[in-house]
From TrEMBL:
Pfam families cross-referenced by the UniProt entry: Inositol_P
Single Gene Ontology MF annotation: metal ion binding
Name this protein carries in UniProt: Inositol monophosphatase
Organism this protein belongs to: Rhodocytophaga rosea
Required cofactor names: Mg(2+)
Binding site for Mg(2+): E65, D81, I83, D84, D210
One of the GO BP terms on file: signal transduction
ATP-binding in keyword set: no
Length: 267
């Protein structure tokens, strides 16, 4: 089954909404998590994506960051992040994006990402490669981590300050082994990885909707996408995982191995 035409059309529709509202909305902090921001545009985009999925694939499940879980008893589950990088979007910073991923049981099968401010649409489907605006893309061919730009998304954990202190200590070790650090803490970083501009992207605080679309995109671009410590990411029974924390480490296979050596040395 070909999902790319549906993803491309839907992402173009919601990119227009995001672009229209960019710089004109304010965000509210979500209850219980000061790192998370919500705008009315998140809700508007989420509703449109859900409507499009239900028109085209009425029997499929859906997980949407804002709407929650829609269980149709299907083997297929669409995983939607209406705006990834909402804090950036609400502040008028252009490094944000919209993500739609598709699981078949626990396997990422297709994914699409749009960066509205950059007019870039990223598409991938299992076994068919990764593309940006129709052109095939691949992860970096660099062989040494010290030569690369690495993005690391980090949130403050006020409920567990020690975790943040320890994470920053590990981050320092990573920074000492790369050329420079970058961080939009959004899907923009993962898009730059897929295009070969960044060497790696890491994050220890994310959700399922932050992962499915970039997972298939990075793998189809020739990269490796795992949990932070190199473990396979478990998407089994995805409808039960909307509250679960996910971590990820994404890079080309050779740079992924180098990062894992650093991470496990400091573990």
């Amino acid at each position: 089954m070909l999902f790319q035409p549906f993803l491309s059309q839907t992402l173009q529709l919601v990119a227009d909404i995001a672009s229209k509202n960019f710089g004109k909305v304010s965000g509210t902090i979500k209850s219980g998590d000061s790192n998370q921001v919500l705008t009315q545009t998140d809700l508007e985009i989420g509703r449109l994506i859900i409507n499009e999925i239900e028109k085209q694939y009425p029997d499929h499940n859906i997980i949407d960051e804002e709407a929650g879980v829609i269980d149709k008893g299907s083997a297929f589950t669409w995983v939607v992040d209406p705006i990834d990088g909402t804090s950036n979007f609400a502040a008028g910073i252009p490094t944000y994006g919209i993500m739609i991923g598709l699981l078949e049981n626990d396997i990422p099968m297709a994914g699409g990402i749009v960066l509205p401010a950059f007019n870039e649409v990223y598409l991938a489907e299992k076994g068919k490669g990764a593309f940006c605006n129709g052109e095939k893309i691949t992860v970096s061919t660099q062989t040494k981590l010290i030569s690369g730009l690495v993005a690391y998304g980090i949130d403050g954990h006020q409920e567990n300050p020690q975790f943040t202190y320890e994470e920053c200590h590990l981050l320092a070790e990573i920074v000492l082994n790369i050329r420079n650090l970058r961080s939009s803490n959004s899907v923009f970083d993962l898009a730059m990885l897929a295009r070969g501009r960044y060497a790696a992207v890491l994050n220890r605080t994310s959700k399922i909707w932050d992962n499915v679309a970039p997972h298939i995109l990075i793998e189809e671009a020739g990269g490796k996408y795992t949990g932070f410590y190199g473990e396979k990411i478990d998407y089994s029974q995805p409808l039960s995982r909307s509250e679960q924390n996910f971590t990820f480490c994404a890079a080309s296979p050779v740079l992924h191995q180098q990062l894992q050596a650093i991470i496990h040395r400091k573990k």
